[in-house]
Amino acid sequence: MTTLDTLRTDVSGAVITADDPGYDEARRVYNFMIDRRPEAVAVCTSTADVVAVVDYARETGADLAVRGGSHSVPGFGTADGAVVADLSGMRGVRVDPEARVAYVQGGATFNDVNVATGEHGLATPGGIISTTGVGGLTLGGGIGYLARAYGLSVDNVLSVEIVTADGQVRTASADENADLFWAVRGGGGNFGVVTEFRFQLHPVANVLAGPIFFELADGPAVFKHYRDMIADAPREYGGFPLFNQAPPLPFIPEDRVGEPLCGIMNCWTGDEAEGLALIDSFRQVATPVAEHVGVMPFSDVNALFDGLVPRGLQHYWKAAFVTELTDDAIDAHFQHGPGVPAMNSTMHIYPINGACHDVSEDATAFGHRGASFATVIAGMWPDPAENEANTAWVKDYYAAIAPHSEAGGYINFAAADDQARVPDNFGANYERLREVKRKYDPQNLFHLNQNIVP
Fold first, then answer.
1. How far apart are CA 313 and CA 344, in angstroms?
2. Structure letter (DSSP) for residue 42
3. Residue 62: phi, psi to the nearest 5?
4. pLDDT over threshold 80, residue 323
5. Axis crossing angle, helix 272-285 with helix 219-230, rounded to the nearest 10
6. What's the sign of the alpha-carbon dihedral 391, 26, 199, 235?
7. For residues 399 and 393, what is the distance between their CA atoms, to the nearest angstrom?
8. Which CA distances in Å does 200 have to 40, 109, 156?
9. Are 25 and 38 in contact (CB under 8 A)?
10. Contact 133, 70 (CB under 8 A)
11. N or C: which end of the chain has fewer CB within 10 A?
């Protein structure tokens, strides 16, 4: 019989239970609104360890939670009574600069990747927070600064090593297990535990980047200028509009700290003079309240927001894909965005045109290639006493923009209560995803996710 004792024997890393020191720390995830007590947290240090945990869950019937960077806002990296495959012991990154390829273990963060690839003046598309796990972000699609230039993260995956529900270690690529390769590129964690990604890299070293904040009264004009500009902007531009309470940083006037402002977060990977001219177009629309734009390593840009989103906050998010950012949609944003309830909370409208639109809708499992934007309303705050009020802000904001958005939202930004939206969130490829799910995980072992029910 499979028992925790045999799991401890089979896993080279620590297997931590409630009887062990460090259990309370081991069971915690990024979102402190999530407070679960798993049966065991198995710290995997190798693919063999992952196989042992998958086998244990399958043979005992325990829920299986897979934890990479631990950033899952719904807390899918843990569950009461579950066994957790914690990949934090698998964070290696190996770079082949000649081939422009990175080999990335499943527990790595994007900071791990950016530091390793940045030494060679290279990068691959990721998100905007450096502590985000590579696995979770990539499997859901991968939207961030470099998407317009080089596509989504999934568009840059060359192959994966994955442990499927039967405990087998498979390679999935265009030439091997092609159906599985298709599904993991946008289908989330529904098909197995990816223990290694092989990414295509691109020449990205220093970039021109940073935020410009504007008065709320000027915001609609700034957002409309952004919308018109981004439709055919050079692909080197990957900036996005946002709302924030002004943080206490040196470039923010002291008397404005804590006030709600709108803004544009800029990122430009091309010729500096051309980028400066493009960014200056926003200043022609309205006078900035504050700004901090300059040349910096891409790894620094990817970490600019890290200080606002440390582990331990309360989180509740909603997401929407948008084809056209209409005047009415912008009006809806300005009805709710100025109410951003905490300095950690925000709203971002990420552009996903450019290179993202070069890929056909059925080439990967990411099912919203026709969308031009991915909106996230990210409610984040430190005080649990504010959970009800701040969650209401997110829900009311989402209700206002939903009529101006597509039916689905980006699965990496979806909340735990979004399971009814799963078919819409996966979009055009949902039925094909179900077919692949039935083949590789017919018993739905991997169900702690935005779940595709086989």
1. 9
2. E
3. -70, 145
4. yes
5. 140
6. positive
7. 10
8. 35, 17, 5
9. no
10. yes
11. N
User: What H or E segment, with its residue span, contains residue 5?
Assistant: helix 4-10
* Residue 316, helix vs strand vs coil: strand
347 is written with which tokens?
């709203």
Q: Strand 93-96 vs strand 83-86: parallel, antiparallel, or unpaired?
A: unpaired
185 and 199 Cβ atoms separated by less than 8 Å:
no
The enclosing H or E element of 196 equals strand 193-200
Q: What is the mean pLDDT of residues 227-241?
A: 98
Pairing mode, strands 83-86 and 64-67 = parallel
User: In whole angstroms, what is the distance from residue 443 CA to residue 438 CA?
Assistant: 8
Cα 197 to Cα 215: distance, rounded to the nearest angstrom: 43
Tokens representing 323?
């084809």
CA max distance for the chain: 71
CA dist., res. 18 & res. 26, Å (int): 10
DSSP 185: T
How far apart CA 138 and CA 84 sit, in angstroms, is 20
Go through 286-296 and write b for each residue having 16 or more CB atoms within 10 A of its CB, e for each that does not. bebbbbebeee
- First CA to last CA distance, the chain: 28
pLDDT tens digits along 284-318: 999 999 999 999 999 999 999 999 999 999 999 99
Unique residue bearing structure tokens 């840009």: 301
Q: Between β-strands 202-203 and 122-123, what pairing exists: parallel, antiparallel or unpaired?
A: antiparallel
Q: Which residue has the tokens 């299986």?
A: 64
- The pLDDT > 70 percentage for the chain reads 100
d(CA 169, CA 48): 9
Convert the pLDDT of each residue in 176-191 to its tens digit: 999 999 999 999 999 9
Q: How far is CA 7 from CA 13, 78, 348, in A?
A: 10, 18, 42
Would you give the DSSP letter of residue 420?
Answer: G
By the 8 A CB rule, do 185 and 359 touch? no
Burial 405-416 (b: 16+ CB within 10 A, else e): bbebbbbbbbbb
